[in-house]
């Protein structure tokens, strides 16, 4: 998790999950071919990593355990090399931005900002993967996985909290405390059932997409639902769950 305490007049915030909320893909996997090309780290080969993850899922491993396994593969890799690779990845993917971003969700970023809520990225993806994206979008605050380093090289560990589930909620609470901001005046967007805790922190919650468990929770909590392909917002009491 990284907190940016730079100044500014805004005291309300809008928290955006990244993978499959803003982006159409999962950044931590999508960037791997570029990271592998720059670093040559065998553990970061795209095909072998996906095989590892598939095997772990088949064994019933938790998302937390899978994330620890994924980031441990960065051990011994130079941080500046990963940052360079991710900048190359982002530049390449943005050549066809409509296949990379949900345009309607980029519009939501602009909408929130125009209404006095400063956007914040909240993600299980790594800060070093998302840094160039945050800069491009003009986002100053990123609450994401922080990979620990020794002398500029990743050591295979990640800083607490792990940015999944309750870890995201904890990071948001800590961030809002640091800004002396009221959660009731903030908004959040998430696409997966693991985002429930994050959405529960704010006064204005949006479910992005059609995750069934999240829709069930949205119906209970009266959260709004947004279609990321169209930007259409539907009140939760209008949802028909099949």
Structure description:
The chain has helices at 27-30, 32-39, 46-58, 63-72, 79-93, 103-114, 127-137, 166-179, 196-199, 212-221, and strands at 12-17, 117-126, 141-145, 147-150, 153-158, 187-190, 204-208, 224-226, 233-234. The protein is α/β, with parallel strands linked by helices. The protein has a domain at 12-25 and 98-238: HAD superfamily/HAD-like (Rossmann fold). It has a seven-stranded mixed β-sheet with strand order 3-2-1-6-7-8-9, with helices on both faces. Strands 4-5 form a two-stranded antiparallel ribbon. Strand 2, helix 7 (127-137) and strand 3 (141-145) form a beta-alpha-beta unit. Mean pLDDT is 92; it is low at 5-9.
Give the SSE layout.
Blueprint: E1 12-17, H1 27-30, H2 32-39, H3 46-58, H4 63-72, H5 79-93, H6 103-114, E2 117-126, H7 127-137, E3 141-145, E4 147-150, E5 153-158, H8 166-179, E6 187-190, H9 196-199, E7 204-208, H10 212-221, E8 224-226, E9 233-234
Parallel strand pairs: 1-2, 1-6, 2-3, 6-7, 7-8
Antiparallel strand pairs: 4-5, 8-9
